[in-house]
């Protein structure tokens, strides 16, 4: 990548220093996240905290872990939905699950699971294909608040109603409402769906591979990483995946600009499903 | 018409002194037609990157890059995450993601919540591009029924960049140009055909 044409502004230097401080103090590594989105999120946090500068925020973050815990909610993007991009799930159902079925036990890693919508989507699909019983899903994220929400499996009812169309377009075989009970304005998903899902803290920036898997689904996470960090994450996925394992990315993500372009073969190009090259 | 905006065009000498390295354009309601006029004037020898955000419904693939590729004389692409911003190319933002330009001059996408009900947001593109290009950026804001872009165009102006707004009287929907004019006095306020001539002048290769 070429060097920026102009020297960094005071705000950009402050932003970089804040990420360095967070890394040194709390071991959360946001230093290789892309700048534009990070700048917007920190600006948003400043407004919410009522602070005038990033330096002031850094001062408070360094001295008060509770402030960092709050800031973490701004730095990560808990935007997710169930069966997002139905064509992706349809391609998984038709092209990937029939292969996974040939394994005695199925291991799937959902990297950057946020509040769990994708883990529940995957579990529903596996159950409908008769594979949930022998599947182990690892759903990981760096945000403990998101992980706790994911474990609870309670989502806003209005949003869930909106997911029904996604579910149907993804090849869903039942009524979506079979999977949750509605109470007031919330939908609680059948806890048995995620009985074998391990929701765990894992950072693609600082942690290493923890299991061999046959499918890694990491969607709309890599867009927040610069190329260095993208390559680190793709390296973890490559290492975790078994021979000819599958990798699914977000609908506008691609490995074309990464160092791993040659190490995965496209399986369903439009749906961003790749297969580890042999 | 008491509130008529007098069309303004900067003198050629002022344009020639500028070193524009990239152009960003925002449009909403009526935007596709307006862009066909504006970008239809680009010659095959056009050299700058042009990055366009048009408001689109979420969860539907954008066809803009395909449609414009058939109609323009320059290369047209949908902006891809981490792809370098290349010269002589018109880029369209994909739907359902914000599009930014990083300081190192590559594209990045983001699923942050919509800004002013819009994703992609014109403000997000323009603010990030202003950080990346500083005074070497030109921003155009066209027809639209929303205030998106007014803040972004102001940021381009504050960073020393060139700003142009479609004459509200010429716009299919004048909310967006009027919102921009409410925030700052742009370098140019012109009907589409005037903006089209101006755009070509911004490429140092074509300025005469």
How would you characterize the overall build of this protein?
The complex is a heterodimer of chains A (278) and B (208). Chain A is an alpha/beta fold and 278 residues long. Chain A folds into 2 domains: 10-75, no CATH class; 86-276, Vaccinia Virus protein VP39 (Rossmann fold), CATH 3.40.50.150. Chain A is built from 9 helices and 10 strands. Chain A has helices at 10-26, 35-49, 54-63, 65-75, 86-100, 117-128, 144-152, 157-169, 227-240; strands spanning 106-111, 135-141, 154-156, 180-183, 186-189, 197-201, 213-218, 241-249, 264-268, 273-276. A 7-stranded mixed β-sheet of chain A has the order 6-2-1-7-8-10-9. A 3-stranded antiparallel β-sheet of chain A has the order 3-5-4. In chain A, helix 1 packs parallel to helix 3. Chain A is globular. The two termini of chain A are 29 Å apart. The model of chain A has no long low-confidence stretch (mean pLDDT 95). Chain B has 208 residues and is of the alpha/beta class. Chain B has one domain (21-200): Methylesterase CheB, C-terminal domain (Rossmann fold). Chain B contains 7 helices and 9 strands; from the N terminus they run H-E-H-E-H-E-E-E-E-H-E-H-E-H-E-H. Chain B has helices spanning 12-17, 31-40, 64-71, 122-133, 150-158, 175-183, 192-202, and strands at residues 22-27, 49-54, 75-78, 89-92, 98-101, 107-110, 137-141, 162-166, 188-190. In chain B, helix 2 links the parallel strand 1 (22-27) and strand 2. The termini of chain B are far apart. The model of chain B has no long low-confidence stretch (mean pLDDT 92). The chains are: A alpha/beta (278), B alpha/beta (208). Chain A binds chain B through residues 1-6, 8-9, 12, 34-37, 39-41, 77, 79, 220, 222-224, 227, 230, 252-254, 256-258, and chain B through 21, 80-84, 94, 97-98, 100-106, 108-113, 124, 127-128, 131-134, 136.
């Amino acid at each position: 990548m070429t060097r920026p044409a102009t020297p960094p502004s005071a705000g950009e230097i402050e932003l970089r220093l804040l990420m360095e401080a967070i890394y040194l103090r709390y071991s959360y590594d946001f230093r290789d996240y892309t700048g534009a989105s990070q700048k917007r999120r920190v600006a948003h946090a400043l407004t919410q905290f009522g602070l005038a500068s990033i330096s002031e925020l850094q001062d408070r973050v360094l001295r008060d872990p509770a402030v960092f815990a709050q800031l973490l909610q701004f730095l990560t993007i808990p935007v997710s939905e169930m069966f997002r991009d139905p064509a992706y799930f349809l391609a998984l159902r038709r092209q990937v699950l029939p292969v996974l079925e040939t394994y005695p036990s199925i291991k799937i890693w959902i990297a950057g699971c946020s509040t769990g919508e994708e883990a529940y989507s995957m579990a529903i699909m596996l159950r409908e294909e008769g594979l949930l019983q022998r599947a182990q899903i690892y759903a990981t994220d760096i945000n403990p608040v998101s992980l706790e929400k994911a474990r609870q499996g309670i989502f806003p009812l209005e949003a869930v109603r909106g997911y029904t169309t996604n579910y149907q377009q993804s090849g869903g075989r039942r009524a979506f409402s079979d999977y949750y009970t509605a109470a007031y304005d919330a939908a609680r998903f059948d806890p048995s769906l995620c009985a074998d899902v391990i929701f765990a803290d894992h950072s693609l920036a600082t942690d290493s591979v923890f299991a061999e898997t046959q499918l890694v689904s990491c969607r709309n996470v890599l867009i927040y990483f610069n190329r260095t960090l993208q390559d680190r994450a793709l390296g973890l996925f490559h290492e975790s995946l078994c021979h000819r394992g599958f990798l699914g990315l977000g609908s506008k993500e691609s490995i074309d600009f990464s160092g791993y372009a040659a190490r995965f073969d496209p399986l369903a190009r439009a749906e961003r499903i790749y297969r580890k090259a042999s | 018409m008491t509130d008529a905006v007098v069309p303004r065009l900067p003198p050629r000498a002022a344009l020639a002194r500028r070193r524009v390295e990239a152009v960003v354009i925002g449009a909403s309601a009526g935007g596709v037609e307006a862009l066909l006029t504006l970008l239809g004037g680009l010659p095959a020898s056009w050299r700058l990157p042009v990055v366009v955000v048009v408001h689109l419904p979420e969860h539907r693939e954008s066809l803009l890059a395909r449609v414009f590729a058939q109609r323009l004389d320059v290369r047209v692409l949908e902006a891809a995450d981490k792809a370098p911003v290349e010269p002589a190319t018109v880029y369209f933002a994909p739907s359902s993601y914000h599009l930014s330009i990083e300081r190192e001059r590559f594209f990045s996408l983001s699923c942050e919540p919509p800004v002013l009900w819009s994703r992609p947001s014109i403000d997000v593109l323009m603010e990030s591009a202003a950080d990346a290009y500083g005074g070497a950026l030109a921003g155009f804001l066209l027809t639209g029924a929303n205030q998106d872009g007014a803040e972004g165009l102001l940021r381009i102006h504050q960073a020393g960049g060139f700003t142009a707004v479609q004459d509200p009287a010429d716009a299919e929907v004048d909310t967006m140009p009027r919102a921009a004019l409410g925030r700052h006095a742009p370098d140019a306020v012109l009907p589409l055909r005037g903006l089209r001539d101006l755009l070509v002048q911004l490429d140092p290769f074509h300025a005469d």
